[in-house]
Design brief:
The structure holds 2 protein chains of 2 kinds.
Chain A lengths: L3 H8 L18 E4 L2 E4 L13 E2 L12 H9 L8 H14 L5 H7 L11 H12 L7
Antiparallel strand pairs in A: 1-2, 1-3
Helix pairs in contact in A: 2-5
Chain B lengths: L6 E2 L39 H6 L14 E7 L5 E8 L9 E3 L24 E2 L5 E7 L5 H7 E7 L6 H6 L10 E9 L2 H5 L5 E9 L11 E7 L3 E6 L4 H12 L6 E5 L12 H16 L3 E4 L2 H7 L6 E9 L5 E13 L5 H11 L8 E10 L13 H18 L4 H8 L19 H12 L1 H11 L5 E14 L5 H5 L2 E6 L5 E4 L9 H13 L6 E3 L18 H22 L9 H15 L2 E6 L8 E2 L4 E2 L4 E14 L5 E11 L6 H20 L5 E2 L2 E2 L17 E7 L21 H13 L5 E2 L3 H20 L1
Parallel strand pairs in B: 2-13, 9-29, 11-12, 15-16, 19-20, 25-28
Antiparallel strand pairs in B: 1-28, 2-6, 3-5, 3-7, 4-6, 8-16, 9-14, 10-11, 10-13, 14-15, 17-24, 18-19, 18-21, 22-23, 24-25, 26-27
Helix pairs in contact in B: 5-6, 8-9, 9-10, 9-18, 14-15, 17-18
Classes of the chains: A mainly alpha, B alpha+beta.
Chain lengths: 139, 784
Amino acid sequence: MTRLLDVLRHDLALTGTKEGCGEGECGSCSVMLNGVLINSCLVPVAQADGADIVTIEGVCGQEKLNRVQQAFLECGGAQCGICTPGMILATLHLFDRHPHPTQEQIQEGLNGNLCRCTGYMRIFAAAEKAASSDSGAIG
Amino acid sequence: MLRAPVREASRGQLGHFQAGIRPLDTQRRGEQLQSERIVGKPVFRKEGLAKVLGAARYVDDISLPGMIFGATVRSAVPRGRVRSIEYGPGIPWDEFTIVTAKDIPGHNYVALISNDWPCLADGFVNHPQEPILLLAHPDRHLLPLAVGAVKIEYEELPSVHSIEESESGTTVVWGEDNILKSYLLEKGDVDAAFREPGILIIEGEYTTGAQEHLYIENNGAIAAYSELEGVTFWGSLQCPFYAHKALMAVTGLPEDKVRVIQVETGGAFGGKEDYPSMIGAHAALLAMKSGHPVKIIYDRMEDMAATTKRHPSRARHRTAVTKDGRLLAADIDFCLDGGAYSTLSSTVLSRATIHSGGAYYWPNIRVRSKAYATNTPPHGAFRGFGAPQALFATERHMDRVAKAAGLTPEEFRRRNLLRTGETTSTGQEIRQQIDLPGWMERALDHAGYYEKKAQFDRQNPDSLHKKGIGFAVFLHGSGFTGSGERYLNSLVGVDATADGRIRVLVSSTEFGQGTNTILCQIAAEALGVDYDVVEMAPADTSIVPNSGPTVASRTAMVVGRLVHSAATGLKQTLIASGLLSETYKTNELQNAARAYIATHGALCSMSRYEAPPDVYWDDQKYSGEAYAAFAWAAYVAEVTVDLTTYSVTVDDFVALQEVGRVLNPVLATGQIEGGVAQAIGYALYEKVAWDRGLMKNNQMTNYIIPTSQDQPKIRVFFEEVPFEFGAYGAKGIGELPMDGPAPAILNAIAHATGEEFNAIPLLPEDIAERLAMRAAVAAEMAAV
């Protein structure tokens, strides 16, 4: 059975979405499906028929970075980088629901994305910085 | 008394991170420390843009024309003879490439230290998951079915699954006596010290479990072979030249016909120091036999079950302390479970042996250490490399020694922590100006230790949420032990390209810890050019020299120092040639480089490692200068133990460390925070459930690491006592944060509950069992 993740990575050559566990635990395969953050390793591709999918390749503009990407650079939110695409999408999804999230909301909003390198602290700092930044919407 | 002020690198986890850094007002020493243009600044991660764009390419993002896929058939038993191999029905076997031990053109071992690690089992297996044969096919999805269709019959033999079983010698599974390696470290006269009158003797046993690296990117390899080019291996790895050496041995090809290229690596933590040599060799063998490039990517379950983990340990401490609380002698028995083959056990044991003394002055100390073989997938490098195991035992034990001597943990430390001029357990004199009691005090102060301790003592009797606060004071030796750096003999280069870009040529790799960034910062600083014009040459063994492996917290200190001297050499060459004046702007240096290359063909400056003077190490007696430098730290943990659920939460954490020089505050802080998080997992969450050498909980579902919601506030503080022989004064920091959290947390739990727990991981069920037992005993006594 082909997963949405396989179609993204192999058929569409969009390799920004990663496979970390294949069981929906790590979140490195996170994409937005109709505006909802999902683990693409758990979605049979048939279930995504007609859906609007946003991957990491779709979040930055032509000329400049999305504010979350910029904040990740400034705050050191990416170390090895493998969780970063999923983490950035999760942060954007959090802002859709909570444009000015509290500490608790940030920690809860990112709890589906595992990071082994950072201890999350720089990621929280990046989320807070991006939330307060007035630069760059998607596109 | 040293008065170096503390630099607070992060203000809680949600304070807006300061983009700038306050000017350093410590006493500066040495001509290295005069400028702060780039070094010490939070410049952006060199490869950060690609990472935030999702454009960084890891092994599984890469495809080659004609590439097929590989998979591994592994042993189902812990030990025995392979009686038969059958290829079951339903699989088009004629379409497959199959590789067994018989197909290995060179030697059937994965070269590391000893050569006892088979690349493929040849009729005999010594651990579950041991690789027996390899399959390759164009259809990636057919491979797992094919692996399942291979039927192997074994004649099982008795196997060994713990340090105690191995130690007993009832079943010998390695060498003559199951002992992979042993050391004896001695200082002073331990036996005489234990006969002194009027001393207190305190004993304890401490154990640590295996830990899985759980890098989010699984192990992966692509290999290609042609007669013209030989073997090329693209890997997720830390040490290109380790893999190079291993592939030469397995393929039988000469040095110039093996090429190893590190690609973007999604986390490593030591788990990609040794293991890539194995998976790379497998991919190479399949590529050679099939005539196609071959990609092998492990899925999570295979990676967790089959690859290396942190060595489990058992430490027995026997300590003599005077009535006024001064340490007199230690007699320590320290054991590691090494798994089925020796791999890196000798060096992990070495570091554990030396770190068993902790940050204390011991007039007399003896450490007898052994690494035992068991029928488990071999254990390997994992951040800390024996020090977390050793320091867990020592720092837990010291709290108990303090108690026995009638002292608070902090007063006991004040009386016994090492001071400048004193010698370590290997007789190494501490030459740097250190102030461990002062740093300890600062950490306690940041944590609000004294107030909280008193507050928790008042509140705990009336609460089901017991709060506790505890700490650990410790050290971590930077660089290879003893004569290791001399043996590595690292070579580094800095060159210019024809179009005027500056490149750093090292085999040191980036896997999140910041290698690319700090080495480019150092080169840019030394050359007097902008950070943006310096880049890393590809980590490709056909392009870069061997600057040694990216391990042992050596990259900033040792390799960075060589980058500095190579860059300085390049600048001097240009000035001496008359093409560049003494002061210049970035573009002027670039113009000079281009002109130089136009005339001379190339511009490259190399620098070779030289050991610091007056450094000696005796490998036989295990004494002398064990490490060029130590980083020092004091960590404080505040916990809540919930007596309804028995779960432990870490509510606040202070991590204070002296590291020589902070080369990049964002990266350095990130390293400490990440290490502390990983060590919290080591202490409280990460348990490997073994079933005769097989990891049963080999999924992220049931091997638990901290999520964002489990994160305590981690507050990081740096002290700087510049180390003369490190790059801009820097010492190593990558592994240090792994050493302190576990004992600090368990010391805090002891404070909270009054129970001494001495084994990690400490799970709620372990706490429940002990507290229920305590309650049962109390009830029995009350009934009497």
